[in-house]
Amino acid sequence: MNTEKLRSFVEQLINSGAIKTLAPHEKEEHVLAFINQNEGKLSITFSSPDFYPDMAWPDIKSELAKVLGEAITDLVREQLKTTIDTLRMEWKQKYSDFMISDELFRQQLIDFAGKLSSRYTSRMHYSNILTLIKNNVIFPFISAVYTNRRYISNGLSKFDKIGFAKPEEAVDFLYTAMFILPIYDIMMPINMVMPGYGGPANKTVSYPETESNDALRKNFLAKLKEIIMTGFPNISPYFLDIILKVYYFAEEAENTTYTSKMLKIVYNMALQWKKVKKDRGAESFEASWLNVARVNYKFYSYDLNTVDELYKITIEEDL
Amino acid sequence: MKTLGKIIDNTLLVIILLSIVQIITDDFAVIGSWSATYNWAKDWDLWMIIVGFAFDVIFTLEFISRAINALAHKRFVTYFFYERGWIDLLASAPLLGLLSGPAFYEYAFNGVIAIKGNRFVGNLKVIKAIRVSRILRLLRILKIFGKIENVMSKMSQHHVSSVSALVVTCSVAVFMFLTSIGFVDLGENPIIEARVSLTFTFVAIANVLMISLLYGRHFAQNISDPIYVMKRGMIEDDYNFTVKSKKPYKDEEIFQLAEAYNTLWLPMKVRIQSMRQKKRAAQAPGQPQDDYSDLLG
What we know:
Strand content of chain A: under 5%
Radius of gyration of chain A: 22 Å
Largest interface: A-B, 34 and 36 residues
Structural class of chain A: mainly alpha
Strand order of the largest sheet of chain A: 1-2
Number of strands of chain A: 2
Number of strands of chain B: 0
Distance between the termini of chain A: 51 Å
Number of helices of chain B: 11
Number of domains of chain B: 2
Radius of gyration of chain B: 29 Å
Number of domains of chain A: 2
Oligomer: heterodimer
Structural class of chain B: mainly alpha
Shape of chain B: elongated
Largest sheet of chain B: none
Order of helices and strands of chain A: HHHHHHHHHEEHHHHHHH
Number of helices of chain A: 16
């Protein structure tokens, strides 16, 4: 099927004035909503002799969504490259087991994130992360953390084997690590022995589904490790450990590295972050998110002291 | 139809503002004896009679048409008591019947220009009391509330205008009462009368402004805004903002409610949303076996 016409239609939509300045994930959502809302008119147009008279509308629609996904993936990849190129990665020098140059690690990140972004959920996550980084949302928090010298600054600089002396270093680490995390939502086939059934069974699971099943989770984490190590063959084992511990659930969370705890909070905030004007009578997006997070800390396995201090910073610094 | 209604409302708003300007300049003209001092103002009193009469006719017609409309829709009581129909009435018909109407009549049929619209009736005591009813014109300041719609909060508009109405009406009523029983006697000096009237006008405007700006802000920040945030959070699926709490007011019911919303209701809503999302992900059709093969090779 020649998708040129679909592509040019999609390009026109994503570059239209109303959504031109939106983040890629918002563009994709808007265009998908537009297609769904105007299905009647679009089906008539695209089934006309000028377009695809031999195809049924559901097939055209699915092709349209695919072409849209590809166009947005290109946008995300472009932005990924630009943003990853700006990462300083000074923190990497502290990892004696990180046997790879900054340039090569950057390229690996671009390739890895580029591959993942062809998947809808990962693409959405990357777009969210890029928006957060573009707006430098985390820096004011970490800067205040290092000025106030309370729990989080100790956590980031002293709790773990390798700490961060400066806020810039910590922020750069968090931003870098986030580019490996959107693997989180993909569905993964896992070979496991089903209890009571003896033989091996193949089950496709997503990360949240593994919460109540130890065996599934271990299997899932092993697969994640395999995927990350394939994308980053010379990755520091300690760095990898920090990444994998982000996926720990409540009962394991206590024993995890502090950087993983912080990364989990920042990453989850990034996935929901929106640039919104403070509404009258309401707290800012960040303050609202952290206020809710500190009540729901057990549910999401967040570190209470961390979300609590971050929330207090939003009040003190009027963030 | 809605556009026409808006045009009429906006025109009336301009007329109300002009009528307040007229009230003020009318008094200034008396104090400064403009008609005697300035050549351009020699017909001032005549113009004031005509303009005052025109305003009173317009506002009376406005009240009558609104009353008829309300009666036709069987909502006269709502209009009169809850939508400030009583202000529309007090600020129009009595003035037309007691002041501007007779003054205009005197000029039109007898050629007499009655200064301040009531000189023609001389010094009868009852007429002095009627003259004091000019102060009812100040109620027009309150009519502005009905015309400017507060898009941010109808509740705030309603409560702030109620307080203003209470303060201004109470002041007007006390002044009229004290004058009618002779406690306040302005004598026959029009300049003193104008000074008192002007002072009263400025006090009324200052009261309304202060109530609208300061109390309105206070009301919005401490009552209507927290309610607005909670309402949106309860109605809209993707509105998950917490209410900004205020320590000094933490013992007040509204902030106690906001605290419960922030710490119980909203976190529970977010948890439910997460669980639904998880459920949707679990119910989504599984991906093909080689879904992640590109990441492994």
